[in-house]
Amino acid sequence: MFDLLPQSTPSAVVVFREVLEAALVVGIVMAATKGIRGRGGWVLAGIGGGVVGACLVALFAEAIRDAASGMGSELFNAIVLFLAVGMLGWHCAWMSRHGREIAQHMAAVGQAVAQGSRPLYALAIVIGLAVLREGSEVVLFLYGFAAGGQVSIAALALGSAIGLGGGAFLGLAIYLGLLRVPMRHLFAVTTWMIILLAAGMASQGAAFLVQADLLPALGKGLWDTSGILSEKQIVGQILHVLVGYDSRPSGIQLVFYLATIAVIGLLTWRMKSPAAPVNPATTAA
């Protein structure tokens, strides 16, 4: 199992981030409806509905993969990778702007239910949509990792389990008021980790397009650091799957890598809300 840890790191990071965001939504709603009889059943129904919806998205993605199997593995893998890069970029930029608004909306729904102005099933709806959104993103991201050809199914499963457990535990700790560290610091770190993940996936996508003769290489092997750090070594494997490290990259891979960092980083910075972010630990306490 320890041999799978380097490959499982990217999926663990993404799943941890998505599960934590869903757990924060659940925690905020439950904190706002504390003491309401029957809320637990509706909350569980919402979580279950969201999970079922995410599973349907996975089945839909599988059908798309089977339908496109004749278009060439390199082209299909590149398309999946670039779709995942787009989703990662949208996620970072959109959440930097609207994360606070989502937290406020969830709290408002919970308070409305507690006051009797909205029915209890509203809890299942808002939680189900949140879980569906985060679960669907996880499905697409994992498909992107798998399409890169460097991550095994076992490593994806291990990383997903680690991320799921870590995100759920931290979300529960926040709800119980055991954690007082502002979430903006944690999300800032994971945002940059996800940006680097996206850059690495974009670089791999460019390599697939070069293999399919759809893009020029712009120079093969701009440098060779395999003698210093090879992808076959543990550290090299971790860097490869986590930040897209390549000991002998082509020029087009470097262009896609740097362009992805610049575009997503700029969008995230431009869309960041100037208002101070909500501290979910304070809200849920």
Short characterization:
Helix 1 (5-32) crosses helix 6 (183-211), helix 1 crosses helix 7 (234-243) and helix 6 packs antiparallel against helix 8. The chain has helices at residues 5-32, 39-67, 73-115, 121-147, 153-175, 183-211, 234-243, 251-271, 280-284. It is built from nine helices and no strands.
Protein model, in words:
The protein has helices at 5-32, 39-67, 73-115, 121-147, 153-175, 183-211, 234-243, 251-271, 280-284. It is mainly α and 285 residues long. Helix 1 crosses helix 7 (234-243) and helix 3 (73-115) runs antiparallel to helix 6 (183-211). The radius of gyration is 20 Å and the shape is elongated.
Radius of gyration: 20 Å
Specify the overall morphology. elongated
- Specify the oligomeric state: single chain
User: Into which percent range does the helicity of residues fall?
Assistant: over 70%
Low-confidence stretches: 275-285
Average the pLDDT over all residues and give the rounded result: 75
Helical stretch count? 9
Strand percent estimate? under 5%
Number of strands: 0
What is the H-and-E element order?
A: HHHHHHHHH
